[in-house]
């Protein structure tokens, strides 16, 4: 077995690692719209390094640029080169498919995931161990190496949209129906559930006192026409007398009451009542 580790021993930071480059090749698909896209342009003919302003289409990133975006503190960056660290690279797609798909470009963001060194974590940085096996003088020998380095975690997310007239019509109709249902529910609550339902009902409904006169016309044979005329005239005269002089029992008619005329019915061809 190997001897116990000496955590007090320090390692020299590898400054040359800042010049290393990483090529990120990413493909994305939107199966609903049957669209596939990639983060590489077709006319990329010469070597390039990603820059958010001058070379935003280039998928080649330098370690120096990634670390500067993930960690702004220079001291922390030097400790990351010495003890390692974990950096997340997020690729976010937001495509408008009403335009040319080549105009859809990803957005890159970088963040540090491990605990900063100034917080004095129990396990700092990022490291891993690997073993090498061989034979020396007919004996099996193993060398256990503890390596420090940067671990890059790449996450990808995306969304796309396209105008659809049918869906717009359906959503508009649903919205209009929802507004109508909301009005109905509000009226039910205010008229029957609310404590001030009586007050609200007085504002919504208006009580109107009407003085009406209604009569019904009944089709009768021709030889009863003269009798019908007499019946109607007698009924009309009686009603007008009651309305102007008062009720049959001598009480005056109250103003604002409704006078209703009943239908004319015939008991027999000779006698009729109203």
Which terms would index this structure?
274 residues, alpha+beta, atp-gated p2x4 ion channel fold, two-stranded antiparallel sheet, 11 strands, 28% helix, 24% strand, disordered C terminus
Question: What percentage of residues falls in helices of 4 or more residues?
Answer: 25-40%
* Spans of at least 5 consecutive residues with low confidence: 215-249, 251-274
Question: Which series of helices and strands comes N to C?
Answer: EEEEHHEEEEEHHHEE
How many structural units, i.e. domains?
2
Structure description:
This protein is of the alpha+beta class and 274 residues long. The chain folds into two domains: 15-163 and 257-267, atp-gated p2x4 ion channel fold, CATH 2.60.490; 166-204. The chain has helices at 63-70, 74-83, 165-193, 197-204, 225-245; strands spanning 21-23, 27-30, 35-38, 60-62, 85-96, 107-112, 127-135, 140-148, 150-161, 265-266, 272-273. The strands form five sheets. A three-stranded mixed β-sheet has the order 6-5-9. A two-stranded antiparallel sheet has the order 1-4. Strand 7 and strand 8 form a beta hairpin. Helix 3 packs across helix 4. The radius of gyration is 47 Å and the shape is elongated. The model is unreliable at 215-249 and 251-274 (pLDDT under 50).
């Amino acid at each position: 077995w190997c001897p116990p580790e000496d955590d007090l021993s320090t390692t020299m930071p590898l400054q040359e690692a800042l010049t290393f480059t990483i090529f990120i090749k990413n493909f994305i698909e939107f199966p609903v719209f049957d669209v596939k896209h990639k983060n590489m342009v077709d006319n990329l003919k010469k070597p390039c390094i990603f820059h958010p302003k001058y070379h935003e289409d280039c998928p080649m990133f330098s370690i120096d640029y990634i670390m500067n975006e993930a960690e702004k503190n220079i001291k922390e960056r030097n400790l990351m080169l010495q003890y390692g660290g974990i950096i997340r690279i997020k690729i976010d797609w937001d495509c408008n498919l009403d335009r040319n798909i080549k105009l859809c470009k990803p957005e890159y963001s970088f963040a540090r995931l491990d605990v900063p060194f100034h917080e004095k974590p129990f396990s700092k940085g990022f490291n891993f161990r690997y073993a090498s096996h061989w034979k020396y003088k007919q004996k099996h020998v193993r060398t256990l190496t503890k390596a420090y380095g940067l671990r890059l975690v790449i996450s990808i997310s995306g969304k796309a949209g396209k105008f659809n007239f049918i869906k717009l019509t359906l959503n508009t109709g649903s919205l209009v129906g929802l507004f109508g249902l909301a009005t109905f529910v509000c009226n039910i609550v205010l008229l029957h559930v609310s404590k001030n339902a009586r007050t609200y009902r007085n504002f919504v409904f208006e009580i109107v006192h009407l003085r009406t006169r209604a009569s019904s016309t009944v089709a009768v044979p021709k030889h009863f026409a003269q009798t019908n005329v007499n019946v109607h005239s007698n009924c009309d005269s009686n009603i007008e007398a009651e309305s102007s002089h008062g009720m049959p029992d001598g009480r005056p008619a109250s103003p604002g009451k409704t006078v209703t005329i009943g239908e004319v019915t015939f008991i027999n061809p000779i006698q009729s009542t109203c």
